[in-house]
Amino acid sequence: MRAHLSDFDLVVASDLAAALDLLANGESRRPMAGGTDLMVLFNAGRLPYRKLVSIAKLPELLGIAVTPDAVTIGAGVTYSAIMRHPVLQSEFPLLCQAAGWTGSPANQNRGTLGGNIANASPAADTPPALLVYDAELELISKKGSRHIAYDQFHTGYKAMQLRLDELIAKIHLKREYCKLKQYARKVGTRKAQAISKVCFNATAEMDSSIIKQIHVGLGSVAPVPLRCHKVEAALTGQRLTDALIAHARTVIAEEITPIDDIRSTSQYRSLVTQNLLSEFLGQLR
Questions:
Q1: Distances (CA, A) of 281 to 7, 94, 98, 181, 186
Q2: Cα angle: 55, vertex 110, 41; to 5 degrees
Q3: Structural domain of residue 262, as residue ranges?
Q4: Of 157, 174, 191, which one is at a domain's C-terminal end?
Q5: For residue 192, how far is the Cα from the chain centroid?
Q6: Tens of pLDDT along 198-208?
Q7: What is the domain count for the chain?
Q8: pLDDT at residue 1 above 60?
Q9: What CATH code is carried by the domain that includes residue 107?
Q10: Is the pTM value of this prediction over 0.90?
């Protein structure tokens, strides 16, 4: 059953301070930026809360700041803005590619990076890229701000370390990936506008045939966007051989927990994940 607008109370925040006041006043008001995920629930009559505050276009949540050491992306920055940014294109191509995978151009023009994170879908496109880039989130409330490694943010399916009075304000990325081998694949029913069956992102640094450093991030294979620490530990410092690749396939198959659902099966997801890992490692030779 479709929802009715009269059942909802939406307040447009005049600035960030006003938005934080509304979140802190005990009304259980929830933030809305681009609304690309929330409107799907609204149209289906399944939006679980009635009081919202619009944080769209708040200047404090917009902009991409570049310093010699880091790039800081405002949580309200759209996917389209990410794809157009020259530093992100050259140094963080996996994030730009993921932004381009996210929905239609209309969604990309309105949807935000912070919203994709806060929606907390294990099948979202940008989280695996943020995981391999060791992203750090800046959370803000009336009580102040705090920083948390993105790898520690998601605690379970649709659960995260974000209080009801907090907003995701910024995403911080260190500028240390441009010289690394970078790889991303999204496997879905279609090439565009499809929720992933498996989303695979990885970066690696090689020293001759030795894997000096490797990061692997996955989507749609666990209750949360998954950083694969076990397979990273199994590969780091090792000489890249066929035997090592075979071992890594076993490790990653044990690290993920895919499910059967309307889009795919757990068996398919496991095999595809192993094959994508093999493909990436093969490119490092």
A1: 53, 17, 21, 10, 17
A2: 80
A3: 181-283
A4: 174
A5: 18
A6: 999 999 999 99
A7: 3
A8: no
A9: 3.30.465.10
A10: yes
